[in-house]
Amino acid sequence: MSQSNPAGRAIMIAGRELSVTTTVLFALVVLTAVVGVPAYGYFQGYTWLDWTLCLILYFVSALGITVGYHRLISHRSFQCPDWVKAALLVAGGWAFENSALKWGADHGRHHARVDEEEDPYDATKGFWHSHCGWILLKDPHYTEKFTPWLREDRVVMWQHRWYVPIVLSGLALPFVVGFAYGGWMSGVGCFMLAGVGRLFLVLNSTFCINSVCHLWGSQPYSQSNTSRDSWWVSLITCGEGYHNYHHAFQRDYRNGHRWYNFDPSKWLIYNLSLLGLAGNLVRSGSR
Ligand SMILES: [Zn+2]
Ligand SMILES: [Zn+2]
Known about the structure:
By secondary structure, the protein is mostly helical. The protein has eleven helices and three strands, in the order βββααααααααααα.
């Protein structure tokens, strides 16, 4: 239920103030992705370059979130050189999900207060709240007390300061590649599919972890909270669907801990370790 706040211009929904800036930006991305991207495809068509770049940037930005934002800085599941960390956090920034500092603080609070009022994406409030509704509302509980190491990390703070140019570079990149390949219209095509369309897909794949993986699936490791294992969500989230295991063993660098579990994020971390670019991989759950 929504209503105007009699004290001012604030719009209140379920007792929380609507963030107008975030809502306008979110609506812009959703409208462009759902209406503009298919319309452009219908009238102009997309080229092999648009589709290829969309696929590459999807995995680059999704892995930036799962490996960089999630397993590296939120859970400290492994360590790596600063330049590798910076590359992962730039890739994660291209997903337009806030700076790593803000994302990590929210995520630390999700684990510490899961299913409670302080949980930023509390799944007990329903699918839409945990999927994306929580982003549109101002959170009175924002705190970094569960992840105090974030502000001491100079790469995290660097990424926080440069967050807006990083997001814009992720949208500019496909335009520049398309423009270099075939001029203005080619640039626009690449921007629509590999920029905005890709952004919409990555946002929703991350959202599914907070919504689907707290509502549907199995609970083989713990029934003390709503987290669920969902193998099919792993297919679209680079391995993050094994969410019940993750809540039980949150520092483990693997979410799908069995060798056959589809978890490209753990494979990337493991391969980085083989190259000497990652170390101290945590295996807090099963070996
Ligand atoms: Zn969770
Ligand atoms: Zn986590």
